[in-house]
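Troubleshooting log. The previous structure file for this entry was overwritten by mistake, so regenerating from the original sequence record. Sequence copied from the archived sheet and checked twice against the printout by T.R.
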Amino acid sequence: MKATRARVVIAGAGFGGLATTRALARAPVDVTLIDRRNFHLFQPLLYQVATAGLNPSNIAWPVRSILRDQANACVLLGEVGGVDTADDPKQRRALTTFVIVGGGPTGVEMAGAIAELAQHALAADFRAIDPRDTRIILVEGASRLLGAFPEPLSEYARQELRRMGVEVRLNAKVVGCDPEGVSLTHDRIAACTVIWAAGVAASPAARWLGMPADRAGRALVETDLSVPGHPEIFVIGDTAAMKTAAGAPVPGLAPAAKQAGRHVARTIRAELAGRPRPGVFRYRHRANLATIGRNRAVIDFGRLQLRGSFAWLLWSVAHIYFLIGIRHRLLVAFEWLWNYLSYGRGARLIVGSDPSE
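Regenerated output below.
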């Protein structure tokens, strides 16, 4: 009769618990390590984080990543005495289902990023589940993704996401969302993680300024971006419903906010110098960019459309260039290069409120 393999349960992934787990790597036992956090914290240098000497990710490492090569170790996230290992197949399916609502650049980029995490970065970190079985669903109410892009680029994005394992549902209206999932017009998706990428509500600036706003709460500004009746007050960025000189809505993009900021600065300088105000804000749209995943991106320059690896490289360079400060540009460039070569990802630390609360 074959002997039952021994099991060791360790509560806590601190120095002691982690050392015990690693020391049992070659022992004929199955080790289960339980912690209420998904990371191991190097507490002797915690004061360096408190005093801005180090970043939190410099002294914390995902426990699953540390033990990914230890075949007899299994890591569980939870409190001892109240751990739910999700043995119910339906519950496990819901826990590994991600629904992203909104097929604009944010939704497309998020779906692609989750797919890459599941297929590569996390593939070897789990024992009880296979991250490659993660179900990723991108829901869009319109007939195509990336509505601001030309149709060929939208179709390219849809096909590439499908190759990455993402389910794309077009013409799908979300009518309800709760902790158990998402309700569509004619369907229901059980999911414990729902990511909203279909737009955000504006800040309450329009309300406390006592001025009219659009449906999203954005302030209806004058053509020079000032508040009606108050030429000395300006509203820009995501808080404002800005329009082009032709009356078309200005997209809620970083370049638009930066152009608006420079326009307001020119207006203030003109007032201080006693010169006429510049007048109407004129938005200049240069390009639409969206990344889908590794070596996959789309760029619309108007007459010129790019997709694939070269577009992905341009997307990366553009975003690094617009970071503030040469130090941050170098750090992000190095981090992205390392992730590209190693198929890794950053800290992957789950932080926030105490799970016991």
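The chain is about 30% helix and 20% strand. Archived copy saved in two places this time.
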